[in-house]
Amino acid sequence: MVYYFISNVIDPPATLYVGKDKFENEELIKFGWDCDFHADNLSSAHIYLRLSPQQKWDELPREIVEECAQLTKANSIEGNKRDNVTVIYTPWSNLLKSGGMATGQVSFKDGKKTKRILVPTRTNATINRLEKTRTVRSADELPAAKEEYLAGVRAERRREAEVRKKEEERVARERREEREGREKGWEELMQGQGRSNEEGFDEDNFM
């Protein structure tokens, strides 16, 4: 089972989710695409923040990062009892899963593609508010959810490509019109000079 939470600290509201146990976490790793949060150097659940195709993991608002970090701390048996817990987060694409790792365990492909946030203490008001939004779904829904997301990404890329194409066409058209305008102006100038020479020539004054 997968637990889903809704955070209203940003607009539009964000979806956070976590597997019921380490076995569900394996499914989340397999069919993920979002931003992964977990306690640094402590055993904890992996909290995922659902990203829209427009969102970037390293440009998230501070408010939602703190919310995810609070939920991560609360879902660590040891971390929940401590103060000053560091939570590390990274995009799903940076997670590394090898055959020799334990169930639910991950590492990183690129250690530099991570960020950390310090959680000084548990904020019960935050956890209680999130708990009131909790819903439960089957992990079997994850493949379809990922395909829906990927379809959205493809649609967004097509839209961006169309915007770029139209902009390139606009620039090319303006350049062409500008070039044609210069050429026309030059032709008119040359024609004007030719008429002036013809009108100014007088055979009687020629010696």
Describe the protein in words.
The protein is α+β, with helices and mostly antiparallel strands. The termini are far apart. A seven-stranded antiparallel β-sheet has the order 8-5-3-4-2-1-9. The protein has a two-stranded antiparallel ribbon with strand order 6-7. The radius of gyration is 31 Å and the shape is elongated.
Strands ordered across the widest β-sheet: 8-5-3-4-2-1-9
Task: Compute the number of strand runs.
Answer: 9
Shape: elongated
Termini separation? 108 Å
Strand content: 15-25%
Q: How are helices and strands ordered from N to C?
A: EEHEEHEEEEHEH
Q: Summarize the main sheet.
A: 7 strands, antiparallel
Supply the key terms:
two-stranded antiparallel sheet; alpha+beta
Short description:
The protein has 207 residues and is an alpha+beta fold. It has four helices and nine strands; from the N terminus they run ββαββαββββαβα. The protein is elongated, with a radius of gyration of 31 Å.
SSE map:
Blueprint: E1 2-7, E2 14-19, H1 22-30, E3 35-39, E4 47-49, H2 62-74, E5 85-91, E6 95-96, E7 107-108, E8 115-119, H3 124-131, E9 135-137, H4 142-200
Antiparallel strand pairs: 1-2, 1-9, 2-4, 3-4, 3-5, 5-8, 6-7
